[in-house]
UniProtKB/TrEMBL annotation:
The chain crosses the membrane at residues 23-44, 50-67, 104-126, 132-153, 165-185, 205-225, 246-268, 288-313, 345-367, 373-396, 417-437, 449-467. It is a multi-pass membrane protein. It is found in: Membrane. Residues 22-470 form the Amino acid permease/ SLC12A domain. Keywords: Amino-acid transport, Membrane, Transmembrane, Transmembrane helix, Transport. It comes from Lacticaseibacillus jixianensis. It comes from the Bacteria. This is Amino acid permease. Pfam families: AA_permease (PF00324).
Length: 483
């Protein structure tokens, strides 16, 4: 059973208030974050410019196929719970249960990580103010934005994402002008840094695989387009348009940005490895802006990265709240979490998510070991969700044909089926295995448990639900394609 949204204020319903521009920016904002602004430099340092570009191109293509798979199902059946609901309907209810709770847990923990990061970023300007004050303030702000209405969330996310987009466009313009010698001293750099040392590829296949993992983390959040479908005013037109736009933007922003960074900064530059939220001056974006003599480049990028982290926290609050609401509505969580207020906001789910985020943040102050374990436990959840989307789509199409329907009945067609979901499935498994190759090779069990904790968590949830409710893989001819 799923909960379809309507525009009424009755308990259990949400509002269809998100426009195409909101969906486009939410999906795009989910993919452009600290992964691009901060850690993209370390991928070049680790695998060389060729390795970094190859990893981001491959993961970008995989993400596009996943989005088209999700888009096909979401336009045919815009339901609450997105991929967790599709796994429940098309695979096995136990798979939907495990995916839903895993995903909620992941974003609730990510929310805590993000609000912790805001304190680090604010210390760049105000080092003597206690960090917890900033974190509590930003958590309260994000809660207020989400409790007002879905439109308030959508508008906030739209403008936060816009700041990121403008920053990347300015960076690309500055970078390209520096490469050809118009800026940065008047001497053309060209592409010689692509062949310096053992570039373009550096570190062999282990380095390349580790960069695939980093690239995968950078793109996590794009599946939000499926979560937002049920609150879209026109999902049948908004979702296909948003997917098409986001694909080209991802290619332009990520691939071009990394190519510009690699052209301007040689992969052996130690600053690339030093980039982090605590060392914003080492961000490759900061380094390039400083190269042309931009005063306050580090301060500017710190502000942009702060908006990026707030955007991630805002999305995390929304995604986890909607997933918990959907599970409450279909009986996979206590029924109270399936209720909404008069504005269509799932208030009980929002309150629990905020509480878990706040408690997790508290552990970062009182007990760092517990906090690190919680963060590790949520680490691979995004990849598990991607695999769930691919498997659900393969089963959905097979059931559609088995039950005598035609692909022509679909509002939106996923690209290159079945190649797309199969590629996503294979790459998702490869990236999960490659999460911690050194520990796998050394059989370092203590490190392996931390690196791969998301997998046993998923298995425990799946097994518990299966044993309690005696579920099974749903035969193709018994899959319920429509309510």
């Amino acid at each position: 059973m799923s909960t379809k949204s309507n525009a009424s204020g009755e308990a259990g319903s949400v509002k269809r208030s998100l426009q195409t521009r909101h969906l486009s920016m939410i999906a795009l904002g989910g993919s452009i974050g600290t992964g691009l602004f901060v850690t993209s430099g370390s991928t070049i340092a680790t695998a060389g410019p060729g390795g970094a570009l190859l990893a981001y191109m491959a993961i970008g293509i995989m993400v596009y196929f996943l989005m088209t798979s999700l888009g096909e199902m979401a336009t045919y059946m815009p339901v609450s719970g997105s991929f967790a609901e599709y796994a429940t309907r098309f695979v096995d209810p136990a798979a939907g249960f495990a995916l839903g709770w895993n995903y909620w847990f992941n974003w609730a923990i990510t929310l805590a990580v993000d609000i912790s990061t805001t304190a680090i970023l604010m210390h760049f300007w105000l080092p003597h103010v206690p960090g917890w004050l900033f974190s509590v303030g930003f958590l309260a702000l994000i809660f207020i934005l989400n409790v007002i209405s879905v439109k308030a969330f959508g508008e906030t996310e739209y403008w936060l994402a816009m700041i990121k987009v403008i920053t990347v466009l300015v960076f690309l313009a500055v970078g390209l002008l520096t490469i050809i010698g118009v800026l940065g001293g008047g001497q053309a750099i060209g592409l010689r840094n692509f062949t310096v040392g053992d570039a373009p590829f550096h570190g062999g296949w282990p380095a390349g695989l580790s960069v695939f993992v980093v690239a995968g983390f950078s793109f996590q959040g794009t599946e939000l387009i499926g979560i937002t479908a049920v609150e879209s005013a026109t999902p049948e037109t908004s979702i296909p348009k948003a997917i098409k736009e986001v694909f080209w933007r991802i290619l332009i922003f990520y691939i071009l940005a990394i190519a510009v960074i690699a052209a301007l900064i040689p992969y052996m530059d130690p600053n690339l490895l030093g980039a982090s939220e605590t060392h914003v001056a080492m961000s490759p974006f900061t380094l390039v802006f400083q190269r042309i003599g931009l005063a306050g480049a580090a301060s500017l990028m710190n502000a942009v990265i702060l908006t990026s982290v707030l955007s991630s926290a805002n999305s995390g609050m929304y995604a986890s709240t909607r997933m918990l609401w959907a599970m409450g509505a279909n009986g996979m969580a206590p029924r109270i979490y399936g209720k909404t207020n008069r504005r269509g906001v799932p208030l009980p789910a929002l309150l629990l998510t905020t509480l878990v985020g706040a408690l997790t943040f508290l552990t970062s102050i009182l007990g760092t070991n517990v906090y690190q374990l919680l963060v590790a436990a949520s680490g691979l959840t995004g990849f598990i969700a991607w695999i769930g989307i691919a498997v659900s789509h393969l089963r959905f199409r097979r059931a559609l044909i088995k039950q005598g329907h035609s692909v022509d009945e679909l509002v939106y067609h996923a690209k290159m089926f079945p190649f797309g979901p199969l590629l996503a499935l294979v790459l998702g498994i490869v990236v999960i295995i490659g999460q911690d190759i050194p520990s796998l090779k050394a059989f370092a069990w203590d490190k392996l448990i931390i690196s791969y904790m998301s997998i046993p968590l998923f298995i425990v949830l799946f097994t518990w639900y299966k044993l309690r409710h005696h579920t099974h893989l749903i035969p193709l001819d018994e899959i319920k394609l429509k309510d």
